[in-house]
Structures are given as structure tokens and as C-alpha cells.
Amino acid sequence: MHQIILMSDPRVAAIPVRDCDEPIVDVRLDGSLPVDLRQAEHAAAFSFLRVGVLDRLIKAQAALPHGLRLLFVEGYRPPSLQRRYFEEYAAELRVANPDWSADRIHVAASRYVSPPDIAPHSAGAAVDLTLVDPDGHELDLGTPMNASPEESDGACYTGARNITAAARANRDVLGTALTAAGLVNYATEWWHWSYGDRYWALATGAEAALYGPRELD
Question: What is the DSSP secondary structure assignment for residue 5, as one 8-state letter?
């Protein structure tokens, strides 16, 4: 497995943001993608995305094998909620690893929750999603969505080997469609894909991010 660049990598934070002021739209109102409501209680604007990201998701969905669809679970995340998620996970790691330095905690936490200052979700640039069959049932992608590295024994990593052949095939189907549409994956989370944010810019060689953090909620 190739070396994974984490969100905490200084090269990510060093990417400049030149926000193009593209609108943020509600995926539910567009109607092109099925939307799961499991994150609705955490943020009223969970179903919002930059229009350029949504356009690429629609393109990716059209490229899926017949009958399969993308299930949208979470897009926009308020900066305050992102900060809370990061701090809570970092606190869990500190309890489990009392000998770890603050820097090590910060890096380890970024495997699962992006540091708040560069979070793609808070820019409306990232989406957490999975695949569903024609009846709306979620396909097996190896772990539940949002399973932490500790909970899943690392199987949440996109390239993890400790998953079934069927789950691997489903991840490949998802990844092929989304990559062809221009999105990039965060390799510690098979469900997290983004376009236009700082991480995307670093991964693709773009000079700057297209989208910066926004306050919606």
C-alpha cells in the first residue's frame, strides 16, 4: 500500500484557497441522488454541497453499473461541528494512549476526522457516500460508514486487505466512477470523497483550492 498523505500533513494546510464563490446547493432539492437522513440531526445543512461537486456526483452515478446508485449521507459540516468531532476523537485517543505526545494525537486524529482549519466538509467540498442496489439496500463495502480505524481494525482504509472479495469489488466500482468524475478519496475512509478543497488540490497538483470554509448553520 502506498504511503497515505493525512489531512494533518503541512502540505495540505500550505495550499492557498482561492474561493470561486460557487453556490452551495441542497442535494435533496436537486433530486438526482438518493439522500440518507442519518446525519440530519447533527446539522441542518448536512445535505448541502458545492454545485460543482454535485455535478460530478451525478456524472459518477451515471457511470455506475446498471441499477446501482450513490447514496448521499453527508456533505456540508459546520466548522463548529467539525471542531467538536475532532476534539472528541482526539480526547478518546489521549485516554487510550496516555504516553502519546500532542503532535502524535493530532496526526492520529486526522486519520478519521479532518483538522477543523482545513476540513473539506466545512467548505461544502466533501461528501460521505456509499452504494445502493435497485431496491435501495446498501451494498457491502467492508465496514459500516464512519467506522473508526480502531473499531474496524483498519478496514476503513480504502485499500485495506482485511475485507471480503465482494466488498473489495464494490469499493472498486465506487472508486472507479468517482475518480473518473474528478473526485479524490481520503485513503483512510473509503466513503469520503472530495473535489475543489485543499486536499484535492494537493492530490491533483492544482495550484489552489477552489472552495474554502463557509458558515451555513
Answer: P
Looking at residue 78, its pLDDT comes to 87
Task: Give the residue from 56, 38, 191, 65 showing the smallest Cα distance to 133.
Answer: 65
Please write the tens of the pLDDT for every residue from 10-46: 999 999 999 999 999 999 999 999 999 998 888 889 9
Residue 51's CB is within 10 A of a number of other CB atoms, namely 13
Interatomic CA distance for residues 176 and 61, integer angstroms: 11
- DSSP string for residues in 108-168: HHTTTS--GGG-SGGGT-EEEEEEE-TTSPBP--SS-TT--HHHHTTTTSTT-SSS-HHHH
Give the span between the Cα atoms of 14 and 10, in whole angstroms.
Answer: 6
- DSSP one-letter code for 33: S
Q: What is the CA radius of gyration of the chain?
A: 16
Write out pLDDT tens, residues 85-135. Answer: 788 888 988 898 999 998 888 888 777 777 878 889 999 999 999 999 999
> Whose CA is closest to 12, among 215, 206, 214?
206
